[in-house]
């Protein structure tokens, strides 16, 4: 199993919360089936909260990294300060040893008396100068160490204070993130009710135009969802399918924006049946891509879309055991003509 880049909050939102909104009317009359509240309002709210959750998570993660870096800096400064303190202790001990040696060798006599009694007065003077120079050097070293300690202590205090401020800010960000998560979960349940009503009636709602953030794609092909975990793969078997699985499933929370993998034309928007709410695109190279078990659609039949355009929101409509996107690649718009989607995307530069 491989993962795309992930937003920790969005991965953490329970994957067992159930589906979202709906798609366009099958008969094109734009009528609404029974539901709970405005389709466009709830769907747009989920999309907006989805983006807010991603942004809040990004801010939190950036703040957490910054706090960790600041804490590491404070720890490094504390270690350097401790090293400087040990060095100062050693310098003081050296100075004490010199003083003790002078006292022992001098016996308390003044320098003049030592010169009179010395066998070689010049050698005595050289020794005295060496001792004086050693004392002066140690005094300078002690002075430098004191200044270094003071500077390190100031820097360490600033780093520790900055770390504490960042920790508090991250606590506040975590609260904001949890608040967005609660709102998002509530909106998803409302969308589930609308999607279930649409599928039961077999008539999809009109396309909900979502306010998609500006994207600057550098490739012609993209993954159908930006943040995901791969689940059931093409060709896999099990009690959930009468035959082998015909697509690649992407486990994502309800309301996750679903993207057109490449430029194409919307040839089907339908509601009901095993695939629930679905969109099918036709691409210029003759292939078709299907996006199924949606909770809402954001395009109309006949519409042309560029790569990466939001065409709907993931859900759990139709024959689905939980929130996910069922993605298929076909050689015709109808089921039964599927090819393996992972290598198909891989040949177009999209690695899942």
Which helices and strands appear, and what pairs or packs with what?
Layout: H1 8-12, H2 39-106, H3 111-117, H4 121-201, E1 229-230, E2 248-251, E3 257-259, E4 264-270, E5 277-283, E6 288-297, E7 304-305, E8 310-314, E9 325-330, E10 338-339, H5 341-346
Antiparallel strand pairs: 1-2, 2-9, 3-8, 4-5, 4-7, 5-6, 6-8, 6-9, 9-10
Helix pairs in contact: 2-4
Summarize the structure.
The chain is of the alpha+beta class and 352 residues long.
Key phrases:
5 helices; 352 residues; 10 strands; disordered N terminus
Structure description:
The protein is α+β, with helices and mostly antiparallel strands. Helices cover about 45% and strands about 15% of the residues. The protein contains five helices and ten strands. It has helices at about 10, 40-105, 110-115, 120-200, 340-345, and strands at about 230, 250, 255-260, 265-270, 275-285, 290-295, 305, 310-315, 325-330, 340. Strands 1, 2, 3, 4, 5, 6, 7, 8, 9 and 10 form a ten-stranded antiparallel beta sheet that branches. Strand 9 (about 325-330) and strand 10 (about 340) form a beta hairpin. Helix 2 runs antiparallel to helix 4. The termini are close together.
């Amino acid at each position: 199993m491989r993962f795309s880049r992930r937003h920790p909050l969005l991965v953490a939102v329970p994957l067992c919360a159930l589906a979202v909104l709906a798609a366009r009317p099958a008969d094109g009359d734009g009528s609404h089936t029974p539901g709970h509240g405005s389709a466009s309002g709830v769907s747009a709210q989920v999309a907006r909260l989805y983006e807010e959750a991603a942004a809040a998570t990004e801010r939190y993660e950036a703040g957490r990294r910054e706090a960790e870096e600041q804490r590491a800096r404070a720890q490094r400064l504390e270690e350097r300060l401790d090293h400087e303190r040990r060095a100062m202790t050693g310098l003081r001990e050296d100075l004490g040893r010199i003083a003790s040696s002078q006292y022992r060798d001098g016996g308390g006599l003044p320098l003049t008396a030592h010169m009179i009694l010395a066998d070689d007065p010049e050698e005595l003077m050289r020794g005295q100068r060496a001792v004086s120079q050693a004392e002066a050097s140690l005094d300078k070293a002690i002075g430098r160490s004191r200044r270094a300690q003071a500077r390190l202590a100031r820097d360490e205090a600033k780093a520790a204070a900055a770390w504490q401020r960042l920790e508090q800010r991250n606590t506040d960000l975590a609260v904001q993130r949890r608040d967005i998560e609660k709102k998002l979960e509530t909106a998803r349940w409302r969308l589930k009710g609308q999607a279930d009503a649409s599928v039961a009636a077999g008539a999809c709602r009109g396309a909900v135009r979502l306010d998609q953030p500006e994207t600057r794609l550098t490739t012609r092909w993209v993954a159908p969802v930006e943040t995901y975990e791969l689940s059931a793969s093409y060709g896999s078997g099990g009690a959930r399918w009468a035959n082998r699985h015909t697509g690649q499933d992407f486990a994502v929370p309800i309301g996750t924006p679903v993207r057109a993998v490449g430029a194409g034309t919307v040839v089907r928007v339908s509601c009901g049946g095993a695939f629930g709410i679905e969109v099918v695109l036709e691409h210029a190279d003759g292939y078709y891509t299907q996006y199924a078990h949606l909770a809402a659609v954001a395009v109309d039949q006949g519409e042309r879309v560029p790569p990466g355009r939001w065409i709907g929101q993931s859900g759990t409509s139709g024959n689905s055991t939980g929130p996910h996107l069922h993605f298929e690649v076909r050689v015709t718009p109808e089921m039964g003509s599927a090819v393996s989607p992972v290598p198909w995307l891989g040949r177009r530069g999209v690695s899942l």
